[in-house]
Amino acid sequence: MGVIGAPRRELEEDRIWGFRFKGLKRQDVFDFEKLEVYQEMRSVNLKVLKHLFTHQSLDPYIQDQFKRASLSALLNLAEGTGRMTNPDKKKFYITARSSVFECVAILQIMFDTNVIEKSLYDELYTGFEKISRMLLGMIRSME
Q1: Could you give the C-alpha distances from 22 to 18, 25, 29, in angstroms and in order?
Q2: CA angle 39, 40, 42 (to 5 degrees)
Q3: What are phi and psi of 58, to 5 degrees?
């Protein structure tokens, strides 16, 4: 218990990007955060970004395109989840899956040109493969 009149110490969980959500837990705010495919994509995206940020010597075009494709997959999934109709949702999920395919093509180029280690290549490839299958299931469930 704090001193009367002293400001309450906020916990990290109380704030999201500097905004306070009174009485809400972070995981209760957005539906897409509850999806396993979102969590998997978020994890893979983080690995991609960490690799890109720590390997500044990569070709700038490849680096930029990989970052864009990886973020596009994540963001289109999130945006699609917020849409109200199944055809609208499906369009965003298809775009997200297409971005995953783009990521895999870039990943293969990076591997072929020896700018990514085999262990990270295998880890990312497996993650993208899993994400692609999950998105395909979501897309097919809307037909």
Answers
A1: 13, 8, 11
A2: 65
A3: -65, 155
- For 143, other C-beta atoms within 10 Å of its C-beta total 6
List, as own/partner pairs, every contact residues 77-80 make where C-beta atoms lie below 8 angstroms and the sequence separation is at least 24, other chains included. Answer: 77/32, 77/35, 77/37, 77/38, 77/41, 77/135, 78/30, 78/32, 78/38
What pLDDT, in 10s, does the model give residues 74-120? Answer: 999 999 999 999 999 999 999 999 999 999 999 999 999 999 999 99
pLDDT digits (tens, 9 = 90+) for 15-46: 444 445 455 455 557 889 989 999 999 999 99
Buried b (16+ CB within 10 A) or exposed e, 30-55: eebeebebbeebeebbeebeebbeee
Report the alpha-carbon distance of residue 49 to residue 40 in Å, rounded. 14
Cα-based distances in Å from 105 to 39, 42, 65, 108, 119: 22, 19, 11, 5, 17
Are 66 and 106 in contact, with CB atoms under 8 Å apart? yes
